[in-house]
Amino acid sequence: MTEMDTKRLENIILLILLLLNAFLLSMVLSERADARQETDETVEMLTRLLRANDIVVGAEADLVQSAPAACTVVRNMELERQRMEGLLGSVNTEDQGGSIWYYYSNRGQLVMRGTGEMDLLYDGDAVKKRGDPLKAATRLFSRAGLELYADGARLSGEELSICCCWNGYPVYNARLSFDFSGEQLQLVTGTVVFNTESETGEVGMDSVTVVTRFVELVTSEGFICSRLESLTPGYLMAVTRSGESTLNPVWRIATDTGELYINALSGQVETVA
Fold first, then answer.
1. How many other CB atoms sit within 10 Å of the CB of residue 168?
2. Cβ atoms within 10 A of the Cβ of 114, count?
């Protein structure tokens, strides 16, 4: 084969590769366009369904989402100690019996229970607010490997209330209260999620199904509202035994008249304290 033939063959191969890449790119773009069209059609369908029941959709409401899967989480004492050191620095520990552990250092003291409940008391000015209590709380707990759900934060005076997350989803009844005094954080009380996943369960219903269920509740059970503000998937935690809990997927539906939590497995309305 001459050098000219070799060059011609290389050009043919290059052309084939370019054509193949162009074909694959067109396939990807086509799939994305189809997905966008399907999403738009789903949003339009749900919007019409809600409008037919005199409910308008808020600009912030995302009507096409998926729910997480149920899972079981357990207490891992080694990881728990690492979390406590993220909150208090180098800690000493005491087993107080009944799945209650006491952690303490020169920064403060913390009691952790087998239900996930905790009480954390800081000494003096161990943690400063620096003007923004939410940033101070999320920064502190991220160092301990604990994710907080910033979008669900509630601030009343010097008290901040915020729920924990699991894999990016809010756990609505695993909520912590941060009490500040001036620029210092003094007390954190509430419930955290255990730190190790041991089992994964059923995936919850998607947003199409839950919006349909929501309309059923409006029409048959007298839930009154005129605007759907937001639709957010998350979890509710149920402690099954000391050191173990189930995270059940739920949907939080915020309306102009209040909040509604729908179990993503059963479709039943849940009560969240």
1. 9
2. 17
Question: Residues 252, 261: contact at Cβ < 8 Å?
Answer: yes
Whole-angstrom CA distances from 58 to 13, 17, 230 are 53, 47, 7
Report the largest interatomic distance among the alpha carbons of the chain, rounded to a whole angstrom. 86
- φ, ψ dihedrals at 191, nearest 5°: -130, 135
Distance CA 168, CA 180 (A): 26
First and final C-alpha spacing in the chain: 81
Contact 173, 273 (CB under 8 A): yes
User: Going by C-beta distance under 8 Å and a sequence separation of 6 or more, which residues neighbour residue 18?
Assistant: none
Contacts of 190 (CB under 8 A, 6+ apart): 117, 118, 174, 175, 176, 177
d(CA 234, CA 171) in angstroms, rounded, equals 6
Q: pLDDT tens for residues 143-172?
A: 888 999 988 888 888 789 999 999 999 999
E strands, the chain, where?
Answer: 56-57, 69-74, 92-95, 101-105, 108-112, 117-122, 154-156, 159-166, 169-181, 184-191, 196-203, 227-241, 244-255, 258-263, 269-270
d(CA 263, CA 64): 17
Contact 165, 176 (CB under 8 A): no
pTM for the full model? Answer: 0.81
Region of residue 55 (left: phi > 0; alpha: psi -120 to 50; beta: else):
beta
pLDDT, one tens digit per residue, over 194-237 is 989 988 888 999 999 999 999 998 888 878 899 999 999 999 99
